[in-house]
Amino acid sequence: MATSNSIGEPEDRTTESELAEGENASAAVDCTNIDEPVSHGLSEFLLEDESVLAEGYSVLVNIDEAGTVFVTNFRLLFLSEGSREVIALGTIPLATIEKFNKIVIKQPSGTWQSEKTPTRRLLQVVGKDMRIIIFAFRPGTKQRSAVFDALLRGTKPARLWDLYCFTSSSSNNSNTNPKVRLVNEYYRLLGMGSIQSSIGTIEDGLFKLSNDLWRISDVNASYNMCTTYPFALLVPKAIKDTDLLKACTFRARCRLPVISWCDRRTGAVLARSSQPLVGLMMNMRSNADENLVGALCTRLSKGREGRRKLYIADARPRKNALANGAMGGGSESSSNYFQCEIVFFGIDNIHAMRESLVRLRDYLDMHGTKSSDGMSSFLRNGGWTWGRGNLSSMSASVSTLGDSGWLIHVQNVLAGSAWIAARVALESASMLVHCSDGWDRTTQLVSLASLLLDPYYRTINGFQALVEKDWLAFGHPFSDRAGMPSFSGSGSIPLELSRHSSSPNITSSLSTPSSPSSIRPLSTSQAPASSNTQPSNNYSPIFLQWVDCVSQLLRMYPFAFEFSSVFLVDFLDCVLSCRFGNFLCNSENERVKAGVFEASACLWMHLAEMRASEGNSHAHYNMFYNPSKHDGPLLPPAAALAPTLWPQFHLRWSCPSEAQSSQVEAHCRNMMGKYNELQKAKDLAENNAREVTTAVESLTASLLNESQVSCSAVALARKANIENAGIKRAIESLGYKVRVSDTSDIENHPAKQMGMPFPTRKTVGSGEPYDEKTDLSVSITVTADNDDDSGNLNDRICESLCPLRSEDGGCKWPSAGCARIRSQFIGLKANYDAFDRLSIYDSYFQPE
């Protein structure tokens, strides 16, 4: 018996023929000795506040890898038994799971041993991110049931606050309020980008600025006029709020025409709304609506006369628009709107997109490198998926990619957006876009056309502003379209969650052997699957399709976008994971009432933190980005709008090697990394060289200064020697032997060499003290006269010339008077105290 739980129609997609090749995986489970899984040591793999609900030992059939599967309050996590590493293929957030089925299969065997035939207990998990996972559990245990029950509880929380994004303590939000960012974007469009709003100005109603053509209105501040529109609207300046209230009644869900983007240089606008309520006879009119739409057509600028043309782009096929008339809707009549032309783009509804993605996922699973049953597409059933070598059959099999219709739908959205951008850029025409409710195809076309028209939206910050404005503020129902928890309840009633069933009703038309789908007929050994949820048709990958369109533009214009394809994949994974509160609920009104922003973490901050770890070398940045190369509108011709599969997203699970970036891009990124490393090394070397140069210059200056001081000292020493020689001669003329020594002689003084204390004071001649600080050493000794006369020269002089000589012939020297007269008489006045204080550093010895 097989049991399934799906977000759409119940169906069992795994059969005996799919898994016949997985016997090795089953054997690996059967032969293991592990009876009960153990979750110890798992904390290193868990996120903050992530807790385990259930676990079970299993084999990931896709890659034949044994390990343990854990169900936490955030994700399904598969840990390899051999490497003890998290396997990305087997790890998927609970909110990203579209359906999961519990299947029991008996292996083929003869009737004589049917009672001994082992059964295979499988759990199939289908994700919204293009993957199909199959786990095989050991027979005879309740591990699969435990995992299945935990998935039931985890994927369908009863209350809003049971979601992981609210239980995580990392939900503290320091980012600006989404309302503030919306008003700041309006300011930029009005040409007032230097003005920054704040939550205070919004609460006080001071954000309502305007220019010559448009103004910001707060008519929907309390969401009473339109519950799915933002609190602030950009409207023509000539239209009053009372007229807006009248005009909203003529549009479905009161989604009246408002401006999404405007060109302040030309006055052209890109507006959006829902379908008009023209009634069954298509004859209902509204003056307020016609005046509002007419106000979008301002006069042409640059001296051109007349009013600009208005295009009303209906995204639906014409027959669908007419069919809506039976329910009161429909489309405008060109005769009721001034200078207007109405065009139909023929883009299919949400149901066609949903079924198309299911067919694409099945095609990729069937023809991938390894399918969910673990077998290569080259070997399955003898190679029938490749026509068994028959080229015509193989071509027919591969052509089923086109049968999925996904690429055709992507091309239609791209073509419609390019046409809108061309009319606005080339004709300066105004454009009003709508579909039925104005929140699915309308949002795709308007946001993609804005991306083509405005280079700011092709930056990372601009991309955030675009998504928050056109997708979040203008009420794309993310809860319904992405199968996320939805808001319900009001006032004091607890906020409940209802998990919308989102899978299409898959018909049996895909079960033929020639179909590429992995949905094959149930084996006779399987019982029909029973559903645990009520089906719903609200699920549709509208936002995923839009991001796919952005990736196609990135492929066509690799120099025009600041962000890379890796950024788009990570961004889309974050949206689908429900880990952040930005994309919960169906409108801004619901998120405000639920308090989502204050209580949950911010996706944009998470991505910014990822980029901050590596700077501009992070994989989120497009290494080929050159804003000067595409500084205006991108207007792709129709011939260039041929989409291909988005490898990084569509092929990453079925063809992982082909899903990687192209070899050229990978090589360029590797070279860029090496270049950045070399640049850092170069900057470091230049800094070191500058430091060394500074040090050398400092040393050179010091040496030059020392050289100058040395030269000055030598000059002073020479001058001192000359003066010393003069002094020596003068003293010797007195009859003394004089020895004048320089510094080196003093160092070699016998007393110094013997270690004796060198005298600091010495009496010379007149008894004046000698200072050791002087650089001049003068020693005067009195020696005996070598002449035969009885007296020396001084005595003879004194005898003959001294007027103070006593009568008895005695000499009164060294009396002061005698010494003074004697000095005058000899012709030398010796100041011994000056000699003692003499130094070569005195100004007396400075060079002339």
UniProtKB/TrEMBL annotation:
Instruction: Provide this UniProt record's keywords sorted from A to Z.
Output: Coiled coil, Lipid metabolism
Establish whether keyword Lipid metabolism is in the entry. Answer: yes
Family assignment?
A: Belongs to the protein-tyrosine phosphatase family. Non-receptor class myotubularin subfamily.
Which residues are substrate-binding? 349-350, 435-441
Write the protein's name. phosphatidylinositol-3,5-bisphosphate 3-phosphatase
Catalytic site residues?
435 (phosphocysteine intermediate)
Q: Myotubularin phosphatase domain spans which residues? A: 176-650
Q: What is the lineage of its organism?
A: Eukaryota, Viridiplantae, Streptophyta, Embryophyta, Tracheophyta
Kindly list any coiled-coil regions of this protein. 668-695
Ranges of biased composition (kind: Low complexity): 501-525
Keyword Iron set for record = no
* Molecular-function annotations in GO: phosphatidylinositol-3,5-bisphosphate 3-phosphatase activity; phosphatidylinositol-3-phosphate phosphatase activity
Source organism per UniProt? Deinandra increscens subsp. villosa
